[in-house]
Amino acid sequence: MSIAAPPLRLGVNLDHVATLRNARGGAHPDPVRFARLALEAGADSITVHLREDRRHIRDADVERLMAEIRAPLNLEMAVTEEMVGIARRLRPHATCLVPERRQEVTTEGGLDVRGAGSALRDAVAALGEAGCRVSLFVDPEPAQLDAAAAVGAPVVELHTGAYCEARAGEAQGRELARLRAAARHAAAIGLECHAGHGLSYADVRPVAAIPEIVELNIGHFIVGEALAVGLVEAIRRMRAVMEAGRRDLARPHLPY
């Protein structure tokens, strides 16, 4: 028996287009140009992370994306007064609150929503009042999902890093089971469920086959693959694998 599931959206993160630009300075490659290409190739939205140290995406990039791209923009950001103020001024379609440390290379885990205190609740409320869809980037743990609902966030994004980094076989199967259980729990308590971090052609299909997940946000792999095949082809291939995963919902005998 097939499982009914909503369409699966793809958000493409373009942080590392800006990383390449910043390595030499100047304006090339332009994240806004690549955002247009991503949307033409089938992306549903664009994601960028405006970090406190501005190591890749800059304020001007976000402002241009808001002004020039006619598609949803998902702004990843730390829970700080500065970032909440920027988001409230620009009013992107979506904001995703993530943990952030200056010394990390990339986001290393989910928010500790349970221990975040009133600052997170206040940020969620302020962003919601500004008209932004608010998501919290969390590890696939029921307690964190319950805490996300308690602070008023309508959306969670499950951190898929542990799954992607696990060795194929039993270890990865355990991580996939955690994601599936977390997605079910999120849906049961009324949260919209997204997922992302580290996904590639090799591991996205089982995640795409989780019916409660309605959006994947993928960046580093797509931008890296684009160096070999071009951004348009990299996104088209990713969408094809995602759609294959969605079709797997009609084949419950599959091991994942």
Task: Describe the model.
- This is Pyridoxine 5'-phosphate synthase.
- The record marks 157 as: Transition state stabilizer.
- The chain has 256 residues and is an alpha/beta fold.
- 46% of the residues lie in helices and 16% in strands.
- It contains eleven helices and eight strands.
- It has helices spanning 15-24, 31-41, 59-68, 81-90, 118-129, 142-150, 161-165, 170-188, 204-208, 220-229, 231-247; strands at residues 9-13, 45-49, 73-77, 94-97, 133-138, 155-159, 192-196, 213-218.
- The longest helix has 19 residues, at 170-188.
* Mean pLDDT over all positions: 93
Report strand %: 15-25%
The number of strands is: 8
Q: Provide the low-confidence segments as ranges.
A: none
**Ends: how far apart?**
16 Å
- The CATH homologous superfamily is named Aldolase class I
Strand order of the largest sheet: 1-2-3-4-5-6-7-8
Gross morphology is: globular
- What structural class do you assign from the helix and strand content? alpha/beta
Output the CATH class name.
Alpha Beta
Instruction: List the domain count as a whole number.
Output: 1
CATH topology: TIM Barrel
- Helices, by number, come to 11
> Approximately how much helix is present in the residues?
40-55%
Write a short abstract of this structure:
With 256 residues, the protein is α/β, with parallel strands linked by helices.
